[in-house]
Amino acid sequence: MTSSFYGGIPVFRGFTSLMDPALYSPLPDDWSIGVADIVDSTKAIAAQRYKAVNMAGAAVIAAVTNALGGREFPFVFGGDGASFAVAPDDIELAREALAATATWVREDLDLTMRIALVPVGVIRAQGLDVRVARFGPSANLSYAMFSGGGLAWADAAMKRGEFAVKEASAGTQPDLSGLSCRFEVMPAARGLILSVLVMPARGVDPHAFRQVIEDIIHLVERSPEGGRPVPPQGPPLKWPPQGLELEARTRRGGPLLARRASVLAYTLFAYLIMRFDIKIGGFVPSLYKRQVVENSDFRKYDDGLRMILDCTPQLERALSARLAAAAHDGIVRYGVHQQDAAMMTCFTPSALRSDHVHFIDGARGGYASAATALKAMTA
């Protein structure tokens, strides 16, 4: 049965083995790829709406997860969007969740989201593939990694207006339970926060591309904590939180003023528990903070390498030099973006479970600005 396919893929632990083709399993032909991104995210970022853009991307994953009743499925957060894969039994639920999310993003965040669902069979007909691996950053959970070129093709097809999913009717709201952005931005501890996006050049030899990616990963691995931008003690927490308004808008039902008041009260309660390390029921704040650090998705692979790194200027120069040389040799296309902080958007379906997910992006442009730099390089 193909619906249980993803759960059967073994989890790998060392990020340095990311490019090993043996770790990736081809998605079944009857699955579909979901893709979503914010139109004109560059303009939204220029208006300093970083949190709203990230919230929109993470909302796709939250909505689909909740629609599927928490069933595990492969997904990847892209900063100003997200991609995922679903089994045929789940495609209509995913379609409804995508459609509702696009409506919510337009009505509540004043952003426009493109959404599409692309059959894996159509991608394979292009001579491409969609293969998936499961990377475990900690014992708590695993993230999907995608290879084969199919995800990038689906994203490009969506941007051409193909396989589009129609928005839900006005007022439709997805179930975004568990989605929040209560933590403050995380200032660079080692010098700067670097957003890195590395894609293969067209028609490149896969072995040459793999070598470049492995060189980059090895450079980063030498850095303390592998360049993780989340402080060891967890991200800063203040009250009221910066993301109060956005979190209020994720809530369903009732006037916005009442939802704001509810989130204000709840976040005060949560802040006091975390600030004074108060154990309540099965919730242990110190354990949760450690899991937040371990579960942060600051590096991933979805037909290209994405990383948000807290790095020294020396590491930034070494990475940029290696990437520039590889681009000169026609092996990669890349974009990097420097900023002074990273930010986190959280999806915590239950604070009592250890598999809560924390999406990391740069706090001053992040992946979207790195993607703009990449496009400028290939223009």
Fold and architecture overview:
The protein is 37% helix and 22% strand. The protein is built from eleven helices and 17 strands. The strands form four sheets. Strands 9, 10, 12, 16 and 17 form a five-stranded mixed beta sheet that branches. The model has no long low-confidence stretch (mean pLDDT 95).
Quick synopsis:
37% of the residues lie in helices and 22% in strands. It has 379 residues and is an alpha+beta fold.
Q: Note the run of SSEs as H and E.
A: EEEHHEEHEHEEHEEEHHHHEEEHEEEH
Average pLDDT level: 95
What's the number of helices?
11
What share of residues is helical?
A: 25-40%
Structural class: alpha+beta
Distance between the termini: 44 Å
Strand percent estimate: 15-25%
Assign an overall shape.
globular
Number of strands: 17
Keywords:
single chain, 379 residues, alpha+beta, 5-stranded mixed sheet, 4-stranded mixed sheet, 11 helices, 17 strands, 22% strand, globular
